[in-house]
């Protein structure tokens, strides 16, 4: 058989295998596979953990995600989203090797056109953002690269897909103190005021807000102990803006309450309800509700404290802050227009002429003896030689040869006087 001969040749030479033969070997089963495996022509350990299911999209993605015990839960959830979109497009039992480069490109375009928001009439109002699509493509690349390493595929169909920036700053929103006060006033009770205050004045992530326990409130040292599901343990101050809402919530908390926000499960989606509270305050809900509250606090703290201090309090790096959180506010624009950033200069006296000459500086005669006179034209000087009888009118500065573009050329006459002028020009110019 041709494929067997190709496997023998590749093994003997140590070279690559023809793609058609590689795909044939991947699909090979039964006694022929066992015979080839015994003599080392195919991998005997090929997808033994899942059997034939390893070649199918859904089971393969599940097995890969389950194997990533080195990842945090949030990252595993993100891989789950990419898996869901792959299966939605191709199907749970789709064969991995059947996904082509063109299929991968079509999957990316399909996500860009996929509606994610609808109006009251059911019409799509927004599609998936470019940055979100890029994140899903990146995870698909990673999973299918593992399939190549596991010899389930000969090539990664997602490898050549280009991805744009995974950061979308177009949805940044700064929540100023006036807006924050309006939302806090609209909150129905102490629990909701504390949810908002945790996010706006302590910069806590949504998962951190719901995980906070009363034992994490270190009243004696005025600090919060934040055991983040995402980044681990850190501490930050009980900021003065947060303290009143924290005290009010502790006083109204039921006896035996463990978590500060006891009403909701730690995995509850409180963002939807918070948006309703924001609407009731007469404010249009902003995108990325909790992330923009956190970004606002990071921007505020950046104005007053050292960079490494704020990094420690909020639990991210300077690079992450610059990439995702720091914003340019209206106050920054106003300061740029109205505040002098260095030593002031007397612009009025400069404009009124006391400090210089309009149109630039004219060079001075440093010797102060010889007047500055214009340089004479050598051709004109040549025509002033005694005895030339004013041949300047005949020897216009056009050169000694006729110009092609001139309708009527002026040529120095070949006469005795012409020779005198030519000699004079030669002496002056050379």
From TrEMBL:
Q: Which UniProt keywords apply?
A: DNA recombination, DNA-binding
What is the organism of origin for this protein? Answer: Novipirellula rosea
A Pfam family found in this protein is Phage_int_SAM_5
In terms of SUPFAM superfamilies, this protein maps to: DNA breaking-rejoining enzymes
Q: Which family does it belong to?
A: Belongs to the 'phage' integrase family.
Q: Which residues form the Tyr recombinase domain?
A: 170-338
State what protein this is by name.
Tyr recombinase domain-containing protein
């Amino acid at each position: 058989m041709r494929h067997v001969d190709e496997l023998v040749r590749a093994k003997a030479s140590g070279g690559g295998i023809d793609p058609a033969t590689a795909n044939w070997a991947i699909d090979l089963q039964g006694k022929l596979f066992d015979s080839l495996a015994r003599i080392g022509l195919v991998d005997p350990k090929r997808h033994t953990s899942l059997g034939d299911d390893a070649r199918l999209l859904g089971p393969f993605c599940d097995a890969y995600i389950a194997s990533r015990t080195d990842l945090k839960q949030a990252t595993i959830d993100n891989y789950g989203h990419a898996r869901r979109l792959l299966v939605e497009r191709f199907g749970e039992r789709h064969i991995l090797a059947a996904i082509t480069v063109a299929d991968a490109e079509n999957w990316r375009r399909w996500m860009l056109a996929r509606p994610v928001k609808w109006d009251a009439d059911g019409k799509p109002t927004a599609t998936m953002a470019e940055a979100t699509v890029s994140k899903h493509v990146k995870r698909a690349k990673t999973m299918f690269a593992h399939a190549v390493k596991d010899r389930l595929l000969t090539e990664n169909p997602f490898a050549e897909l280009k991805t744009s920036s995974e950061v979308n700053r177009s949805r940044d929103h700064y929540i100023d103190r006036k807006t924050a006060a309006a939302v806090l006033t609209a909150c129905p009770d102490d629990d909701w005021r504390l949810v908002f205050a945790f996010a706006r004045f302590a910069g806590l992530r949504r998962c951190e807000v719901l995980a906070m326990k009363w034992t994490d409130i270190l009243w004696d040292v005025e600090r919060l102990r934040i055991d983040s599901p995402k980044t681990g343990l850190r501490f930050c101050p009980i900021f003065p803006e947060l303290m009143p809402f924290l005290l009010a919530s502790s006083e109204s908390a039921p006896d035996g309450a463990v978590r500060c926000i006891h009403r909701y499960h730690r995995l509850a989606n409180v963002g939807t309800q918070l948006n309703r509270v924001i609407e009731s305050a007469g404010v249009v809900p902003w995108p990325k509700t909790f992330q923009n509250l956190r970004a606002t606090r990071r921007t505020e703290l950046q104005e007053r404290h050292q960079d490494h201090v704020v990094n420690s309090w909020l639990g991210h790096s300077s690079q992450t802050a610059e990439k995702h959180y720091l914003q340019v506010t209206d106050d920054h624009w106003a300061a740029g227009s109205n505040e002098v950033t260095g030593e002031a200069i007397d612009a009025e006296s400069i404009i009124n002429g006391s400090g210089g000459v309009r149109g630039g500086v004219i060079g001075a005669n440093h010797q102060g003896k010889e007047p500055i006179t214009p340089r004479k034209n050598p051709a004109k000087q040549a025509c002033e030689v005694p005895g030339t009888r004013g041949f300047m009118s005949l020897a216009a500065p056009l050169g000694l040869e006729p110009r092609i573009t001139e309708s009527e050329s002026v040529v120095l006459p070949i006469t005795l006087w012409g020779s005198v002028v030519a000699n004079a020009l030669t002496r002056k110019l050379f």
